[in-house]
UniProtKB/TrEMBL annotation:
It holds the Pfam family Dirigent. Homodimer. This is Dirigent protein. PANTHER family: NUCLEOPORIN-RELATED. GO terms for cellular component: apoplast. It comes from Aegilops tauschii.
Length: 176
């Protein structure tokens, strides 16, 4: 005789409230390449053509405006890797990073401590990245981040306006 399966909690497989939420949020990503306040650092530079294989770590800040003195809403913590030998414009940076939310006063739902896992490529001033996961209040997120470079001083700093569109799963509440 087979073993009796364990009893399931009454909420397993069912949403007790709205299971999925939608997030639409615009921020400004501030990338500082050089200078005293730089927020990225090259850690590998193999010397190939087109800077192929260059790897840098980043801790870019994200603000409500393109002003570096504004409150930091989130940080893009990760890396970027030069991943082309043939790109016509000479660059194609692959980026995997965690968007870690810090400021709880900016959004209606406090996402402080929650993350979005983002990955994609930068090979032009404008583009799109994939949201491939999330943690905390942004659990199981999926979606896109569209970016537009709004201010750039090559090899010094840039601002990208990022438009986040994501769906995430809220944690079900257990019924007693």
């Amino acid at each position: 005789m087979g073993a009796t399966p364990p009893p399931l909690a009454p909420y397993v497989g069912k949403c007790t409230s709205s299971c999925e939420e939608e997030l639409n949020l615009s921020l400004y990503l501030h990338q500082v390449v050089s200078g005293a306040a730089h927020n990225q650092e090259v850690i590998l530079s193999p010397g190939f053509a087109n800077s192929f294989g260059v790897m840098a770590v980043n801790d870019w800040t994200m603000h409500a405006t393109n002003d570096s003195t504004a409150s930091i809403i989130a940080r893009a913590k990760g890396m970027h890797i030069q991943a082309t030998q043939t790109q016509a414009n000479g660059y194609a940076w692959f980026l995997p990073f965690n968007m870690v939310f810090e400021d709880s006063s900016y959004t209606i739902n406090s996402f402080r401590g929650s993350t979005l896992q983002v990955m994609g490529i930068v090979n032009d001033a404008n583009g799109e990245w994939a949201i491939v996961g999330g943690t905390g209040k942004l659990s199981m997120a999926r979606g896109t981040v569209k970016f537009t470079t709004v201010q750039s001083s090559p090899n010094i700093e840039s601002y990208k306006k990022i438009d986040i569109h994501a769906f995430y799963t809220t944690q079900p509440t257990e019924k007693v």
